[in-house]
Amino acid sequence: MNKYDQFAAQLSDGYKLFALALTGMFAQTVAAGVSPHSITRLQSDGLQAVNSFMQMSSESIDHYLITIDDGVVTRSMRDRQSAFLVTLRALTTKNLTNTVLRAKGSTTGFGQMLKETGAGLFEALMKKRMEQPFTARDSAGRNWNAGALVRTQARDLAYQTLIDSQAAKIGTTSDLASVSYSDNMHDFFGLRLSLTGATPGFQTLASVRAKVFHPNANAELVPYV
Prior knowledge:
Elements: H1 3-32, H2 36-67, H3 75-104, H4 110-117, H5 119-130, E1 135-137, E2 143-145, H6 146-171, E3 176-180, E4 192-194, E5 203-204, H7 205-212, E6 220-223
Helix pairs in contact: 1-2, 1-3, 1-5, 1-6, 2-3, 3-6, 4-5
């Protein structure tokens, strides 16, 4: 597995643990009986989970950025990191808000119901909650399973920052680069680019980025020889 897919898998696994933690908090809140105190506790514990996950995510990105290529971290890479973390913060905060709203709308006195009906009802509640994964919308307004969206966005962050790093490294000695794939039969294999637009007669990296280096791509930049 390449380094950007490894990063995406790692961060996605972290999000799954965060979502599972919220699910557990929801179940405990409802099982104990919904009250103003239990809702306040859910909000507090949930916010702590959000902050812990965000700290882990920021540290994971920092580590990834300094380990790709020669550890060249450009302004554009940091800008991508910041934008991603803003999006992730918004998503996890929405997850918490929706969890609290669901808890407020749940049956109170659930602890007493457990005593009367046994653990089977609790297990049914957990199963039902797990079958309703968090959802999210992307920038195009499409609905996603939130975990899948986090993985896709994390992968694109890692991939785009890798391309930024490769461009910065090549750019120290030349304005020209080539597109490389493991499959040399790919339509864009060997495409020559001007990194900055300073070299006439070549398409620029910016002009082909969305087409060549899209979220599912595995093209990379190499020096033009």
